[in-house]
Structures are given as structure tokens and as C-alpha cells.
From TrEMBL:
Required for the transposition of the insertion element. Residues 1-32, 87-111 are annotated as: Disordered. InterPro entries: Transposase_mutator. The lineage of its organism: Bacteria, Bacillati, Actinomycetota, Actinomycetes, Pseudonocardiales. This is Mutator family transposase. The gene is tnpA.
Length: 446
């Protein structure tokens, strides 16, 4: 630990009482507390701290480092200030005689901070009425430890990995049970998110899913986590919800869409999806005026599963004439040409296109500026890609709730990087919006 000189300098830096008013900004935008801290820790004081730490062999950071000593000193000084405010008089002040309450020693407490674990002295009052705010009773973590755990968890780190990371980097001992409890705080937040109101109209909605492994009834099963992304009238994308299911079908999708309707959704102009079982029928049942559009990229990808490597470039070029055709009639001719050239060798390719045809052809009625937006569910697949990265490290989840917790934290983390609550924008949206006004008259809110 640092020598007496560094301790004295630290105590000098935090030796004055602070008050709530010091946190109020002055006309220049600087707080009084910030000015006093800058005055206390002028370059000469900092040089003295560093020189004394070096002479004593004390590291700058780490559990026994200089920063941790300063954290300890600041916390203990803050607690003493809180006690003074609670009692109404300073230590050894005669004004405290006869008040009915006084200081009653202190107790030690180990708390975890982002600088490492520190053991601090917490003052007590004789009546047991002191309720510290800086380090609340029963609190064992302060600062950003909880946020750090949630951030690591949202990026796919397992509880075992987070436990090791906190110990190695911050010297904080956190069991896997504790880490699980920290991440459980988002349970209520998830329910609020899943039941929050949504906009009345989304011009475009993307629906897709990822496969996850979940333990169910003593066996690990494959389930799908389905994500619904809505593009609002401003062109901003929002995750409307996530649903985990073992089987798909019209009944499941009808329930999902009914939930969205109960949350305020009244109309969808175009629903882009990937031929999920029962989904088109459910969409037209709940939102009868919605155009169901299959993802063109998914059709191409499914068709290419039947093609040998040496023929891929040629078939991709032939398929391009289908989805770039100016009209449905031109697309049908292009499909016939593809069939005549490759149908005998690759009948699976033609079968994929024919099965997707009815949900593909609405795409051909759109002008180029709108085709570019509904061409693919890449808007949602890029999110799914991020979610796959954080779920694949798990092997399997112990329950649907555990899977939803990670998926929600992942979505929250992605959202915070891509525009927050306002969502991310859509390139070329204004031109596409004007096209939607013409194609769907009277259905967009003014």
C-alpha cells in the first residue's frame, strides 16, 4: 500500500465536506465540486501521489493500487459527510450534546467497484437510524459493476467467463449465482418491453427467426426465437417483440399478430418474411389488407442449395433476370427460360421458385426505390447475426426465460449502438414513402 505521504495527500484532496449544492453547475457549466477537485488535485499533488506510490512499490491500478486507495478515501469521507448531515453537527461539536443521537464507532464493509474490491469503514449512529446513500445498507456493489456484468452478459459471455473476468481484471469476487441474480433484474424490464404500446401503422414489417437450443422437460430441444422488426413512418426500425416457440404454424403466428394488434397495431402495408409455416395465412387473417412479400434473398439462397459450385455464377445470373423483371409477365418468361436451361439438371431450383411465386410476385409491382427496401429481410438478418453470435456460446439454455433474458439484453445492446429508442434509419426512405402513399392511398397517417 502507499506510504503516509500519499495517504495524507489523498486525505487532503477529500478532506472538505461536500454538499448537494456543490453539484449545481455555475454559469460556466462547471460544478463547484469539480472546481474544488481540480484545485485539490493540482499537478504538484498528483506528482506527489505518483512519486510516493512509486517509492512504496504501489501500482497505479488494481486491487491494491493507488486508484483503489483514493476510492476508499473518497467513499469513507463521503460517508462521514453523510453522517454529519444526518446528525446535524460535526464530530466533537458541542452542539451535539443533548440531541439524543451521536456517532457510535464504525463497521467494516467490503464492496466491489470497477477499480476493484475495497474494504471501507462505515460510520454508525447510536440510534441505528443512519441510512447511507453513497454505499447503501446491504449493498456490496457500487459504481458500474452491475452495468459491467449486464454488458458482458449481453455480449455473449457466460456466467463462468464473467466470474473469471471480474476476478482477473477488477479483483472482484462474484459467484455465478450472484451474476445470474444481477442479470435477473431485467426480468420486469422484459415484461414491460414485451407489452409496451406500438405505433398504429408500420409501413413495413420484417419477420424472421434464429434457432436456439433450450432444455425442456429434461431434454434439449431446438426452438425458434422469432423477431419482428417494424419500420415506422419516419423510416426508423424498431424491434416490436421476440417470441420463442418449438413449433410454428398458423395458430402460433395468429397469437403473435393478435398480441401486436392488442398493443395498438392497426395496419401493416407490407410484411416481409421467409416462408415461415402458417405465417402468410395468419397475417391475412389478422391484417387482411396487408401485402405478404417473401424475402427475395431467401428464395435465391434456398434455390442455391441445389446447385453445384461450378454452376453457381451462371444460375445466379439467370435468376437475376427474374427478380429484376419490369413486370410479372416478364418474370414468368424469365422463369421459363431458367427452367428450360437448368430445370432438367437442377429441378430443385425451379421448385423453390414455383413454391414461392405467389408471395414473390407482389414485389414486381413496386418501383425500384421501393424494391430496394423490401428486396430482403437483411434489415432483420443483420440483427439475427448479432444474436447468433451471443447465443452460440451457450450450448443450450436451461429455460425459455433464460434464453429470452439473453436475447433481450442482446437486442438492447444492439439498439443502443444503432440509434437507441429512436431506432435506425432506412436509406432512401423519403422516396420510398412517397411511393407507398401512391400504392396504399389513405392508409398512412398524415
Amino acid at each position: 500500500m502507499g506510504g503516509p505521504r500519499s495517504t495524507a495527500v489523498i486525505n487532503t484532496a477529500v478532506g472538505k465536506d461536500t454538499h448537494v449544492s456543490e453539484n449545481q453547475p455555475d454559469p460556466d457549466g462547471e460544478t463547484a465540486a469539480a472546481r474544488r477537485l481540480a484545485e485539490a488535485l493540482d499537478p504538484s499533488a498528483i506528482d506527489a501521489l505518483l512519486a510516493d506510490a512509486k517509492a512504496a512499490g504501489t501500482p497505479i491500478d488494481g486491487v491494491d493500487g493507488l486508484l483503489n486507495q483514493m476510492t476508499k478515501a473518497v467513499l469513507e469521507r463521503s460517508l462521514q459527510t453523510e453522517m454529519t448531515h444526518h446528525l446535524g453537527y460535526d464530530r466533537d461539536d458541542p452542539a451535539g450534546h443533548g440531541t439524543g443521537n451521536s456517532r457510535n464507532g464504525s463497521s467494516t464493509k467490503k464492496v466491489a467497484t470497477t477499480n476493484g474490491s475495497v474494504t471501507i469503514s462505515v460510520p454508525r449512529d447510536r440510534n441505528g437510524e443512519f441510512e447511507p446513500q453513497i454505499v447503501p445498507k446491504r449493498a456490496r456493489r457500487i459504481g458500474q459493476i452491475d452495468e459491467l456484468v449486464l454488458s458482458c452478459y449481453a455480449r455473449g459471455m457466460s456466467t463462468r467467463d464473467i466470474e473469471a473476468h471480474l476476478q482477473e481484471v477488477y479483483g472482484v469476487e462474484a459467484s455465478r449465482e450472484l451474476i445470474s441474480n444481477i442479470t435477473d433484474v431485467v426480468t420486469d424490464e422484459i415484461e414491460i418491453w414485451r407489452n409496451r404500446p406500438v405505433d398504429e401503422v408500420y409501413p413495413i414489417v420484417y419477420i424472421d427467426g434464429i434457432r436456439i437450443k433450450v432444455r425442456d422437460k429434461a431434454a434439449v430441444t431446438i426452438k425458434s426465437a422469432h423477431l419482428v422488426i417494424g419500420v415506422d413512418v419516419e423510416g426508423r426500425k424498431h424491434a416490436l417483440g421476440c417470441w420463442i416457440a418449438e413449433t410454428e404454424g398458423a395458430k402460433f403466428w395468429h397469437s403473435v399478430l393478435t398480441q401486436l394488434r392488442n398493443r395498438g397495431l392497426r395496419d401493416i402495408l407490407i410484411a416481409c418474411c421467409d416462408g415461415l409455416s402458417g405465417l402468410p395465412e395468419a397475417i391475412t387473417s389478422v391484417f387482411p389488407d396487408t401485402v405478404v412479400q417473401t424475402c427475395v434473398v431467401h428464395v435465391i439462397r434456398n434455390a442455391m442449395r441445389f446447385v453445384s459450385y461450378q454452376d453457381r455464377k451462371k444460375i445466379v445470373k439467370s435468376m437475376r433476370t427474374i427478380y429484376t423483371a419490369p413486370t410479372v409477365e416478364a418474370a414468368e418468361l424469365a422463369l421459363k427460360d431458367l427452367d428450360s436451361e437448368w430445370g432438367r439438371q437442377y429441378p430443385g431450383v425451379i421448385d423453390v421458385w414455383r413454391r414461392a411465386w405467389n408471395d414473390f410476385i407482389p414485389f414486381l409491382d413496386y418501383p425500384p426505390e421501393l424494391r430496394r427496401i423490401v428486396y430482403t429481410t437483411n434489415a432483420i438478418e443483420s440483427i439475427n447475426y448479432q444474436l447468433r453470435k451471443i447465443t452460440k456460446t451457450r450450448g443450450h439454455f436451461p429455460s425459455d426465460e433464460a434464453a429470452m433474458k439473453l436475447l433481450y439484453l442482446g437486442l438492447r445492446n444492439i439498439s443502443s449502438r444503432r440509434g437507441g429508442e429512436s431506432g435506425t434509419g432506412t436509406h432512401g426512405w423519403k422516396t420510398a414513402l412517397n411511393t407507398l402513399v401512391v400504392l396504399f392511398p389513405g392508409r398512412l397517417p398524415l
